[in-house]
Amino acid sequence: MTLDTLAIARILHILGVIIWIGGMAFVTLVVLPIAAKLPDSETRADMFERLERRFAWIARAAVLVVGISGTVMADGYGLWAQFIQASGWWLDAMAGWWIVFFLILFVAEPLFLHRRFSQFLRRDSDRALKFLTRAHWVLLLVSLCVVAAAVAGVHGY
Ligand code: HEM
Questions:
Q1: Looking at beta carbons, which pairs linking 117-121 to residues 24 or more positions away fall under 8 Å?
Q2: Whose Cα sits closest to atom 8 in ligand 1?
């Protein structure tokens, strides 16, 4: 693999991470608090569903870009052995977190999460949005820790 391919993979990896985690930060810190304050519960549910539906596709594309570019780099830099060494814990953190999102966005969402949450939102939008905000905070904080771990790991801190 040429150095150019690895450089492009690294650039795409970081751009994917920015769009994915940055988008999640925007949903958590801006969209959800605004949706929760809308007075009418039907509008609240509707606004949230439209925004989330649109962002879900962006997040799916970003997750695929991050996964493919990460695999290209792991292969190109010959890092597979490091995945099973204690010193490569940050590689496991990235890959593990990626798998969690892959399962949420590509398996749970289309299979049952979207339908179940939509029902919850129409039944009790107050509680549904509170639950969702908490879940997004957890996902966002863990994601930021994984980014910090990746940067620290790559630079040998
Ligand atoms: C299948 C999943 C993933 C794989 C295989 C993977 C693999 C890699 C590899 C091989 C590198 C470069 C290591 C080096 O230069 O020695 C890297 C860099 C990086 N990854 Fe991942 N990654 C994955 C997912 C993620 C996720 C989910 C995040 C963030 C939440 C992430 C954030 C980063 C960051 C920020 C860097 C750059 C660190 C730097 O250059 O300072 N990666 N990743």
A1: 118/45, 118/49, 121/45, 121/48, 121/49
A2: 70
Span from the CA of 28 to the centroid of ligand 1 (angstroms): 23
Q: Is 46 exposed, middle or buried (0-12, 13-18, 19+ CB in 10 A)?
A: middle
Per-residue pLDDT tens digits for 73-125 = 999 999 999 999 999 999 999 999 999 999 999 999 999 999 999 899 889 98
Q: Quick check: CB of 94 below 6 Å from ligand 1? A: yes
User: DSSP letters along 29-84, please?
Assistant: IIIHHHHHH-S-HHHHHHHHHHHHHHHHHHHHHHHHHHHHHHHHHHHHTT-GGGGG
What is the C-alpha to C-alpha distance for residues 155 and 157, in angstroms, rounded to an integer? 6
